[in-house]
Design goal:
Strand content: under 5%
Structural class: mainly alpha
Helix content: 55-70%
Distance between the termini: 28 Å
Radius of gyration: 18 Å
Length: 236
């Protein structure tokens, strides 16, 4: 009982730490976005906003998340590989938010980022067998585990990026998704996963006041791809 209470306390502290850092860092990142020219200018009818709005809000989310992780999470080799891949994704997003990069180049770098955890043991090893009449409960992937894992990570990374089209949408959906994984992790006694998800929820909520309609700042590819990457890897 004491262990469970302590675990929940760490989860709450991780969430609050990420929330506070993300909230406080957003104005700082906003100023930085203006300096480097990471501004979304409404040049066509597809954009809902009428005035230029800074991007790079994902950096504030990333900082909030990382501070909380370094404070409350045990950095195992697997966790280290996930964080290293996340840094690659964030650097890619920052550069893309400042100057648009070719889609193929971004795709290749995303695959590289996905390979980092996949080659470090963060892999999908089996699927539940959809054939309920089969004696085999699982499909064991074997050598296919790494390519399937890379496919999963890259797909979810881009899925979150694709829904980042309305104020607060990707941030809110990611917060809800992370909360769901957080609850499941607590039920399964996966405390480290729960703490990581709490940090992600906190980082999303901390940025939300700046991103709700009418948005004062966008998370950009920096935030959307980072959120997708963490959700993908931690769900594995």
């Amino acid at each position: 009982m004491a262990f469970q209470t302590q675990s929940v306390a760490y989860v709450v502290l991780a969430l609050l730490a990420a929330l506070v850092v993300s909230f406080l860092m957003t104005p700082v990142v906003k100023s930085f976005a203006y300096k480097v020219g990471a501004i979304d200018v409404p040049k066509d009818d597809r954009r809902m906003h009428k005035k230029p709005i800074p991007r790079l809000g994902g950096l504030a989310i990333f900082f909030g998340f990382m501070v909380s992780i370094l404070l409350f999470v045990e950095i195992t080799p697997e966790m280290r590989s996930i964080l290293l891949g996340a840094v690659v994704i964030v650097v890619l997003g920052v550069v893309d938010d400042i100057m648009a990069l070719p889609a193929m180049l971004k795709f290749v770098i995303q695959i590289v980022a996905a390979l980092i955890p996949a080659l470090s043991g963060v892999v999908i090893q089996a699927f539940s067998n959809p054939n309920i009449f089969s004696d085999n409960l699982y499909w064991v992937l074997g050598w296919l585990s790494i390519p399937f894992t890379v496919l999963w990570i890259v797909a979810i990374t881009n899925a979150v990026n694709l829904i980042d089209g309305l104020d607060g949408l990707a941030d809110g959906v990611s917060a809800i998704s992370a909360t769901t994984v957080l609850v499941i992790a607590l039920m399964a006694s996966e405390i480290q996963v729960a703490i990581v998800m709490a940090a992600l929820v906190g980082a999303c909520v901390g940025f939300m006041p700046y991103n709700l309609n009418p948005a004062k700042m966008f998370m950009g590819d920096t935030g959307a791809t980072f959120l997708g990457y963490i959700l993908a890897t931690m769900s594995i």
